[in-house]
Design brief:
By secondary structure, the protein is of the alpha/beta class. The chain contains 12 helices and 18 strands. The protein has helices at residues 14-25, 50-56, 95-108, 154-157, 177-184, 223-233, 279-295, 301-329, 331-340, 342-352, 358-365, 371-376, and strands at residues 5-10, 30-34, 47-49, 67-69, 71-76, 79-84, 90-92, 112-115, 118-124, 127-132, 136-144, 165-174, 187-192, 199-204, 208-216, 243-248, 257-258, 261-263. The strands form 3 sheets. Strands 1, 2, 8, 9, 10, 11, 17 and 18 form an 8-stranded mixed beta sheet that branches. It is globular, with a radius of gyration of 21 Å. The protein starts with a strand and ends with a helix.
Length: 377
């Protein structure tokens, strides 16, 4: 064990592993502290955009790619619209396998890994002391990438209000691959109107469906009941194991760095407010955190990191939040437009394929929306 590391990363998910690999590539002595044994379960639909894959900097092994998605089927009340493209929109992966692969790549790049539960940290005299259950580590910088529910991030951000926090319930339901293909035909099945400021989904994986619901925590008072009703209405058996987790609503103003401590991924609040997708932002923010630390100087790292994130994806998160607020203001009007007008759905699903940005989509959409909806935002 070295006396002082250049960088300690708490959490070995996509943000932490991306930060570790990039930091090692830059020649920084990097230590990852992770409390769970990998591979570990992660509640997630597992949709990986091409933008996220391109951010990796290395090819994704074929055995991790369970389904190639070329279309979307959108439901709102009694209306259903399906749209297919002639190209890949997203790739479905199982998060436990995907995250394990990212961690292996980080370690192969030179990062150290220790199975430790971090209890606290303290910044003092030009370094950060990171306390675990049985020892204390020293580092020039600390990246917290341990998710939005970790108490460590509260020392930087403070309390997270319910109005900017989402909640998801997820279940994995085994099924024969032929039946999965017959039901979904390489599509994502999306159900709007299931949860407040959110949606339900059925995603086709290899040998199982990922089924879930998500919405704002302030409006989704009984998520288990909503999830059970969603499962029943779509023909799935009762009694399946449900797992839940919180999701920060991206695009809101948050503190993401203070002194020598940077937040990345969900811990920083970098999540698409409309879809709840956070893998791309986790990967990218982890990389940007490492680059800010590598470029220095130390007194400017926090500001440099905030600027890099703002310039890279801050605008996109803001427009995703704006679209989410449109839906929340008049959900019946907005969702009927999204689910029932083919041109709008066609343009929206191009965002997942990185062929269109939220900014482009919102600016095109706004002139086509009722004025009553726009005044309520």
């Amino acid at each position: 064990m070295k006396s002082v590391h250049d960088l300690i990363i708490v959490g070995a998910g996509p943000a932490g592993s991306a930060a570790a690999r990039e930091a090692s590539r830059l020649g920084l002595d990097t230590l990852i502290l992770e409390k769970e044994a990998f591979p570990r379960y992660k509640a997630c639909g597992g949709a990986l955009s091409d933008r996220a894959v391109s951010t990796l900097g290395f090819p994704l092994p074929e055995d991790l790619c369970e389904r190639t998605i070329t279309g979307a089927r959108v439901h709102f009340r009694d209306r259903v619209m399906e749209k297919h493209k002639g190209y890949r929109l997203t790739t479905l992966v199982t998060r436990s396998s995907f995250d394990q692969f990212l961690l292996q790549m980080a370690v192969q790049s030179g990062a150290e890994l220790a199975a430790k539960n971090v209890l606290d940290y303290q910044e003092k005299d030009g370094c950060v002391s990171v306390k675990t259950e049985d020892c204390t580590y020293q580092s020039r910088f600390l990246v917290i990438a341990s998710g939005c529910q970790d108490s460590l991030k509260k020392k930087v951000q403070g309390f997270e209000p319910m109005r900017t926090t989402g909640i998801c319930m997820v279940a994995e339901i085994e099924e024969d691959d032929e039946l999965i293909a017959k039901r979904l035909n390489n599509s994502l099945d999306v159900y709007f109107g299931v949860a407040d400021m959110g949606y339900g989904w059925i995603f086709p994986h290899r040998g199982y469906y990922s089924v879930g619901i998500g919405g704002l925590a302030s409006g989704l008072k009984h998520p288990r009941i909503v999830m059970q009703d969603f499962l029943k209405s779509n023909g799935f058996p009762a009694g399946v194991k449900l797992r839940g987790h919180l999701i920060p609503q991206g695009g809101n103003d948050r503190v993401t760095a203070k002194g020598r401590v940077l937040l990345a991924g969900d811990a920083a609040g970098f999540v698409d407010a409309f879809t709840g997708e956070g893998i791309y932002y986790a990967l990218r923010s982890g990389q940007l955190a490492a680059r800010a630390i590598g470029e220095g100087p130390a007194s400017e790292v926090a500001d440099l990191y905030r600027m890099k994130c703002k310039n890279d994806f801050g605008e996109e998160l803001w427009y995703a939040l704006l679209l989410s607020k449109m839906m929340h203001s008049y959900p019946n009007v907005f969702l009927r437009i999204l689910a029932c007008q083919e041109e709008i759905l066609d343009r929206y699903i191009e965002i997942a394929a990185s062929k269109r940005t939220y900014k482009d989509f919102v600016r095109w959409l706004v002139p086509r929306l009722p004025m009553s909806l726009l005044r309520a935002i």
